[in-house]
Amino acid sequence: MHVLQLVADSAEPLNIGALVKASGYPRPTVHRIVAALVAERLLVENERGALLALGPRLIQLASRSWGRSDLRLAAVDELKRLRDITGETVHLAVPNGNTMVYIEKLESPSAVRMASRIGTSVALHATAVGKAYMAALEPSVLEPLLLGLPLPRYTDNTLVKLPGLRKQLQVTRERGWSVDAEEHEAGIFCYGAVIRGSRGVPVAAISVSTLMFRQKADPEQAYVAPLLEACRVISERIGETPSLSAADIL
Predict the structure, then answer these.
(1) pTM of the predicted model, to two decimals?
(2) Neighbour count for residue 133 (Cβ, 10 Å)
(3) What is the mean pLDDT of residues 73-90?
């Protein structure tokens, strides 16, 4: 899984030498792992066998998993409705360690679109989905997460100090929705809200992302209100399964 994740996270196909260096495993070990993954079609080699990329079996597995996901079944109609109402790009993300992972993206019908894609990991501190999720956590869970959180800078607006981040999380908690004010990508403003599972535990988050130059005059009415309604409906649907946990949803 470590080798597979390294290939998945790389922007370009990797060779054995790069995998050895990145994984820290001996070359013979990497060769054996790669051979097994290729045999199972989880990795594929190029014609010369020098470069490796994710294989077609992963797409099949992901498609089946997502197609049967309780979260997807609860969210799919509301995500489409939210995209249609706002006219903007909608992301659904779930927590994964100290990041959020996009598991669904519905593109804006407008000509200018975002470069994000399903499967992308994004920072908790610099995204609307990340801050919406963190603001919903209990203090006993949130504080250790914050103390171990890397805070890289993506733009001039990125919050890279804990006091500033804590203050914004408090604001998010009080009003019920978060913002990414060009903090992850210049020119893009996002609004986020959390989805809660049974017993009110945060399990996912949704964002509505718009380009700064076309943001509507009343964003709370245009984006936040339908976003909060979508999260409310999805949370109610998930909450109808009392035993459902975050792991079960995925």
Answers:
(1) 0.76
(2) 27
(3) 94
